[in-house]
Each structure stands twice: as C-alpha cells, then as structure tokens.
Predict the structure.
Amino acid sequence: MIQFILAQATTGDDSAWMSQLLLFGGIILVFYFFMIRPQQKKQKDQKKFIAEIKKGDAVVTIGGLHGKVYQVEEDKIILEIDKGTKMIFEKSAVSLEQSKKLQEK
C-alpha cells in the first residue's frame, strides 16, 4: 500500500511547478503595480514639490501648521504664520497632500 502511494507521489505532473511559478510571478506583478510603483510615484512628486517651493506659497507642515513661505533657503524654509510671527522648518516637513488641499480652496 505504501509503495503504491509513493509511486503516485513521484509520478507528478511536470506542469505543476510551471503553474506555481506563473502564480508567484503574477503575485509579484500585482505587488509591483499596486503597491511599489504608486509609492515610488508619490515619493517623486513629494521631492518635486519640495524643490519647487517658492516665496509666497501657502503650505501646511506635517504637524498641521498653516502658513505662507516667507523665505527659502537650501534645506530650510521660513514660514510666516501670522503677521510678524515667523518659524523655521525643514523643507521635508512640508506636506504635499495637505498643501494641495489648501491651494485648491
């Protein structure tokens, strides 16, 4: 009986490993197109937005602080929060998504 079961197990179909390979390849493609690629595009847009910040732009920081850009330096910006109130932030602290929402209003 055991020899019969082992004989069936060894006479497997050669196309089984091919179908498993195609399944895993399909899963990898789905992960790439639905997870990795959109995240790379989002990072690229964020870097472009930060590079194009100029004086007078209305922005929102990651912490939720709203203000207008008063001065732009290499890696820092000075935001005017209220008349006469200025704060220094890293450029990376500016939120692309929240700033776009603010500009649409």
